[in-house]
Specification:
The chain has 258 residues and is α+β, with helices and mostly antiparallel strands. The strands form three sheets. The protein has a seven-stranded mixed sheet, sandwiched between helices. Strands 11-10-12-14-13 form a five-stranded mixed sheet, sandwiched between helices. The chain has a two-stranded antiparallel sheet with strand order 1-2. A hairpin with a 4-residue loop joins strand 6 and strand 7. Helix 1 runs antiparallel to helix 2 and helix 5 runs parallel beside helix 7.
């Protein structure tokens, strides 16, 4: 299944590249939440191909009405994770596809055609970037840890969310090596998987933002949890916390401090 998925996703990557280098008409789903015809076009392409090839799975996708789709044996699609980057020609943008059997992780694929990076993982088989095995950083000192985060779309309309983001950065920044913000949750998780970052956290993400990346990170030896340290639940938890495992408790402690 994974090889067929990769073939289809690489085809869709050509559409993403075409859009990335072209002039784009941009619409807003919310104050800071962009959508383009390429989000919709890539999603429709993937849904059609996946429906033909993988009839035993239903499809949950960002730009679709998922109200009548039960999360069980599901393929979860983000056609363009990092749409703001895509629109502004920042190269950290990707197609993210997570496959789940009976709500359990199975296959994750994150493809950035702009940088020609294909991250992939199947549960029990390890994680890879362009066929090279991935492994998380071994750094265990939080002061030396490079942390990534993101800013929720609600920061423009929800004062509580904005203040929560600022409080956490204010507390964590002096206590770690530094903080990065790339603008794609899927890529952030993959960067923890390959050891670039030691940790990552963000609020208000959707299942399609993280469904593939969390599989890739866990297969690379990393750890995923909710803000309180319990198992992270797709479609439910407000915060995701991800790390190399070595700094996970320290990251949660610092996040909970503010």
């Amino acid at each position: 299944m994974k090889e067929k998925l990769k073939h289809i996703i690489k085809e869709a990557g050509e559409l993403l590249k075409e859009g990335y280098f072209s002039k784009k008409e941009v619409n807003f789903k919310a104050k800071k939440d962009l959508v383009t015809k390429y989000d919709v076009g890539i999603e429709n392409f993937l849904k059609e191909k996946f429906s033909e090839e993988f009839k035993e799975f239903n499809i949950i996708a960002e730009e679709s009405d998922n109200s009548n789709v039960e999360f069980k044996d599901s393929i979860i699609i983000d056609p363009i994770d990092g749409t703001t980057n895509f629109v502004n020609k920042v190269p950290h943008t990707c197609i993210s596809v997570g496959v789940y059997k009976d709500k359990k992780p199975y296959i994750g694929i994150v493809y950035n055609p702009i940088l020609d990076e294909l991250y992939e993982a199947q549960v029990g088989c390890g994680a890879f970037l362009n066929k090279e095995k991935l492994e998380v950083s071994k750094e265990g000192d939080f002061q030396k840890a490079l942390i990534s985060t993101g800013f929720p779309y609600t920061s423009g309309t929800n004062k509580d969310d904005l203040e929560d983001v600022i409080r956490k950065i204010e507390y964590i920044l002096p206590r770690c090596q530094d903080i990065r913000r790339l603008g794609s949750a899927a890529i952030d998780l993959c960067y923890v998987a390959k050891g670039t970052y030691e940790g990552y956290y963000e609020m208000n993400l959707k299942a399609w933002d993280v469904s593939a990346g969390l599989i890739i990170l866990q297969e690379a030896g990393g750890e995923i949890s909710s803000l309180d340290g319990n198992e992270y639940k797709l479609f439910e938890d407000k915060y995701i916390v991800a790390s190399n495992g070595h700094i996970h408790n320290a990251l949660i402690k610092n996040l909970m401090a503010k």
